[in-house]
């Protein structure tokens, strides 16, 4: 069976292979090779037999084609209610047909499945809330992505992303040395203004182990400094691990379940080694989902829970505010109209909407809800890996119009986005549509408005 140099069924597992695929700028040769990539039908049949269990079979068979899921999908709305964007139609014409034909499919069909799975679904799971049969099409598309990955039919960027996790245990080429150096650098940069502040590395038995998104040490190291300042002000006993610090999972987006397992087990190994009481996950929705919600199952933990109690960053902030560990200076509250992007992965899929509203009540004088909001809010428009796939940039930009219109309706100019995918999507939304908004994570806003205890104030010269 012919396989290309770049596009093939083999996962990227070495730095050399990673550099080779990265060298194919934009994936031009990769996608040309994909057009000739043959489907291994026997392997596909075997995979379906092994992994297609009763839940998925029931869902595929119980869909009534009622169309009640249609308006739940932001991509259906953004594309003028094209029937081809109805969630049930999308899954039945991809996974449904694949199952019905028992894997007897060709290259053209698999490329079609890839295009639908990554450009017409962000796995936000909103449609599941409105299906009268309780069918979760987001989960089904995640399963389809895994099948496509096994056959080599995945977007170029997803191939690279899963390779990064296999090689670096991070979504970017950040080594252990890079990470430790960044922590030490941020501590040095911050300690002059905040005497006594530390970014403890590999501290055992701390109350909190803090895990991050690799983009932070790679591109936004000040985010780590902001986290350190807030932990310092709250008087927390905390640490970061030298290894197992990255909690995101592009492997999850890619459907590379083996790499997803490797990634989350590196985090759990750090917990086992350092024995913290709890884990706090940075402002990232899919990282929380990968490490806290899905991760235990990939790691084979029978009770479905991570090794220690685990909090998304908004949970920790709400807790610190409620307990008085952090206090907001009333004079520094946000005065202008502000709105909040509810992340699919920690609001709809983890139920943290009340914590978010408590935080907004503490920090903003004119908080304006998007409509709809909380667990009913729409995906940012770039989740599930869609933000980063060049092949589907046009489709992503069309999808952003739903979030654009939600934000415009609030008349807010500041959007708080405690999730990396949401942050990226709303940044790109502004670059594409120029609606005159700003966007921010929570940490930099909080650092600018919290009261500093007397004993932590910088002594005047």
UniProtKB/TrEMBL annotation:
Q: Where is the 4Fe-4S ferredoxin-type domain?
A: 61-135
> Which residue range or ranges hold the Cysteine-rich domain?
338-422
Query: Do you know which InterPro entries this protein is assigned to?
Result: 4Fe4S_Fe-S-bd, 4Fe4S_Fe_S_CS, Cys_rich_dom, Helical_ferredxn, HmcF
Tree of life domain: Bacteria
User: What keywords are annotated for this sequence in UniProt?
Assistant: 4Fe-4S, Electron transport, Iron, Iron-sulfur, Metal-binding, Transport
Pfam families reported in the protein's UniProt record? CCG, Fer4_8
**Coiled-coil residues:** none
The record's annotation in NCBIfam families points to:
sulf_resp_HmcF
Q: What is this protein called?
A: Cysteine-rich domain-containing protein
Q: Which organism is it from?
A: Desulfoluna limicola
